[in-house]
Amino acid sequence: MTITANHIRTTIAAYLDEHPEDKRELSVVLGRLDGDDDLTNRKTLPSHVTAGAILVGPDGRVLHILHNVTQKWLLPGGHLEPSDETLLQAAARELAEETGIPPHVVVPHGETPLHIDIHPIEANPAKGEPAHRHVDFRFLFRTTADIGELQAEEVSGAAWRTVNTLHDERLGQRVAQALG
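The structure corresponding to this sequence follows.
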């Protein structure tokens, strides 16, 4: 089973119950779900869905990874795969793949994303990908584990950073509030 448009729609509805201020931005995504676009496919343009993880350690710091393609410090995450049944599962899978932290030592904060971020992605001629946008469903997780073996094809570094170093102010506020 793969992630369906209905699952994405239901996840957005649950998210908007908690964050109604994001309705205008997400209305475009909801409209595309009503059409024929397969937002789970990375080839779907001008945007498609991805899943991300906000991993918080026991000291309240957030894990960042150094992404090989962008050479930027980002939260773990990535494209959906056919084996993913939910967006939360996709985020957990990406987290385990990229950081080497086993899933059994990671606990999700909940089934609803803490943040849904729509952001631009630069063109990648090596992969034949034009510039596009990711609709990133970011889930909060907690762990007491440390970083494992990094996925060398995609990640060249990992570091625990304070919440105030998150690039998105709204995300930082939501993480701080969730950690309360």
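The chain has a mean pLDDT of 94.
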